[in-house]
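Deliverable D5.2: sample structural annotation.
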Amino acid sequence: MNHYADLYRNELLNEIVPFWEKHSLDKDYGGYFTCIKGNGTVFDTDKFIWLQARQTWLFSVIYQKVQKNEAWKNIALHGAHFLERHGRDSEGNWYFSLNREGKPLVQPYNIFSDCFAAMAFGTLYQIVPEQRYADITLNTFQNILKRQENPKGAYNKLVPGSRDLQNFALPMILCNLSLELEHLLGVEEVLKLTDPVIDLIMDRFYDTDSGLILENVSVTGQSVDSFEGRLLNPGHAIEAMWFIMNLGLRKNDQKLVEKAEKIMYRQLEHGWDNIHGGIFYFMDIKGHPPQQLEWDQKLWWVHLETLVALAKTYARNQSPMAKEWFEKVHDYTWNHFRDANRGGEWYGYLNRRGEVLLDLKGGKWKGCFHVPRALLEIGEAFSAPKNS
C-alpha cells in the first residue's frame, strides 16, 4: 500500500495546490475566489467565510507539514488578513458570506463559519506566532461553546418546544476542532471538552439496532420518526469516525478506536450504491423516500473522507477489509471525481450513475479543503513505516 503515498502526495503538490494558487487569489480586495469553473475561470465573486477560513487553514497546514514554502505562508496570510478585516460582526460572530470587497451579505447564522475561523487562525498561529491570531482563535472558540446549545440563535426557524432536535454536525466538528487547537487549549481542556462529545456521538446519535449514525435526535437522545429524525448522511458519519479514531489514539483508548472503525465500516456498507457504485449522499434509516432531492448524488467530500478513514484504519492494523474497501473506493473516486483531461482540482458533484453534474471545481460549498486535506492525510497514513 506504500505506493499510494506517492500517488496522493503528487496529486496534492502537482495538481491541487497549483490550481488554487493560480486561480483563487483576489489580488485586488484580498481573500479568495471559490466559485471557479473547470477551466479555471471565476464565475461568482461572493466570499463565503467558512471557505475563506478553510483555505487559510489548508495553506497554513501544508506550510507546516509539507514544506516551508514562503509562498504558501503568504497565501495563508492573504486569507487571514481579509477575514480579520471583514469577517466578524460587532459581537465577534463570523458572517456566513461577504461580497467581493468584504461587505457583509448574510448574517452569522451558521456556526460553522466560526468553527473554521478558529481552526484557520489556530493553525496560522503555529506558523506565524503573533498573539492576535491566538486571541482570535480562543475568543472564537469560546463563542462557539457559548452557542453550541442553540447554534443558530435568533436565526433558528423552528418553533421552540414543537420538535426540538440536536444535530450531529457540531459535535462531530468539535471533536476535530478541539484536537486542532490542542496547542492553545492544552491537553486537559481537550479531554474535558471531547469526553462528553464522544459519548454524545457514540451513544445518543448511534442507533444500536442498525449500527448507523443518525443526523438528528431529540434533545434527550431519542430517535424521532420524522424526515429529519430518520436522516442518514453516510459521509458525515464516516468523517466523524476518523475524528474519533484520532481522539481514541490521543487518549490511548483502543476500544474507542475499534468501535469507531466498526461503525465506519457499517456506514460504508449501508451507504454503498451496489448498482452504480459510490456512496449515497442522504438516506432514510427506515428506507422511506428522503426529503432531499439530491439524495442519490455522489459528492466528492463523502468519498474522500471515506478514503481518509480507511487509510487510517489500514495504517493502524493492516486489515484486509480496510485494504479491500480502500481500493474499491479509491478506484471509484479517482475514476469519477478527478479531471483526467484538464487536471487541477477535482469535480464535486456527480449523478447517481457517476456522471459529472456540474462543471465546477469550487462554488458556495466546495473550496480548497476536502480534496487537499484528504490527499495530505492519506499520503501521511501510507507513508508510515509499518505499511507494506
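Annotation notes: The chain has a mean pLDDT of 96. The two ends are 6 Å apart (CA to CA).
The annotation will be released with the project's public dataset once the embargo ends.
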